[in-house]
Amino acid sequence: MLSPVRLQEVISKSLAPIQAIMEDRAVTEIMVTADGRVWVEKHGRIERSSIVLPEVDRQLALAAVAKHAGAEGGSHGRDLRSGTADAVVSTGVGGLRFAGALKGVDARGTTLAIRKHLEPEDRPTLNQLVEWQMLSEELAEKLVDLIIHQRLNCVFAGPTSGGKTTLANAILMHLPANERIGLIEDAREMALKVEHKNCYLAAPQSGLTAKVLVQHAMRERYDRLILSETRGDDTYDLLRALSSGHNGSVTTLHASSAAGALSTLELLFQMSLPEGVQMSPQSAQRYIAACINLVVFCSRSYVRQDDGTDKSYRRVSETAIVKGVSNGEYNLEHVHVQI
């Protein structure tokens, strides 16, 4: 079995043609389509570079990424196999988030998407997000009050690359120093500044799932739990933790609106119920409304610039307090809406 260091060397060598792009601190996303063309997101703009990454390099990089995921979790990782579930990979490696699919999923070739996470000292603050017009100063202060001071349990929702983790991280920079925080991630994305914290990294390939870590965290006397994203089997245990005194906890979720986030959470909750446990939709809704107090929905849109290019902008579109359920619908009190 190759060591994580050796696997990272293989990844770096395979991606040598795009090394300069990887090292550019202004680049946030690198996307390689099945024809090998390399697309780059920089300063909110997505543009095609002049580089074409050969198929063999893409396959080597993706195979090493798949192996590296297992090596970090103490297992042998997995081998890529075309035409099976093992033909796709999604994991974190050295501060990067990799997602890719082996040739055959797309008949033209292997695909890659690499998301770069800023170094902890470079993560944007709330003041910077206000300067970038993601939200107003008034709303920034309101969110700090609701989440940090009033300790409302919050879901940050939005599309991929919508800024939900960036905003959550900026707000969590205001955590008081006296609190004990438990952070659970499957890739290093958050950069909490409090000293009294434990940062758990899930390794699903070896069975160390977010669900296992949430269950463990409930025995560790944390004041708040931060789950970087709830995706499925961890949702039941997460909500159980939120209903047992971990006020002011935070998670993120993919959704298309604030109301949609709660509907998605409801679906994930029902899917994650322990075997033999059933809950009516009405009971599930009431339980979720009791556990989740606040939903912040972040959106991403493209605006045509004077030079003819399109630039993406991230905004806080909805901020809603969950007031309960009536007639099968969540009652949301919007404290902010931006169309």
From TrEMBL:
<protein>
    <submittedName>
        <fullName>CpaF family protein</fullName>
    </submittedName>
</protein>
<comment type="similarity">
    <text>Belongs to the GSP E family.</text>
</comment>
<dbReference type="InterPro" id="IPR027417">
    <property type="entry name" value="P-loop_NTPase"/>
</dbReference>
<dbReference type="InterPro" id="IPR050921">
    <property type="entry name" value="T4SS_GSP_E_ATPase"/>
</dbReference>
<dbReference type="Pfam" id="PF00437">
    <property type="entry name" value="T2SSE"/>
</dbReference>
<feature type="domain" description="Bacterial type II secretion system protein E">
    <location>
        <begin position="128"/>
        <end position="273"/>
    </location>
</feature>
<dbReference type="InterPro" id="IPR001482">
    <property type="entry name" value="T2SS/T4SS_dom"/>
</dbReference>
<dbReference type="GO" id="GO:0016887">
    <property type="term" value="F:ATP hydrolysis activity"/>
</dbReference>
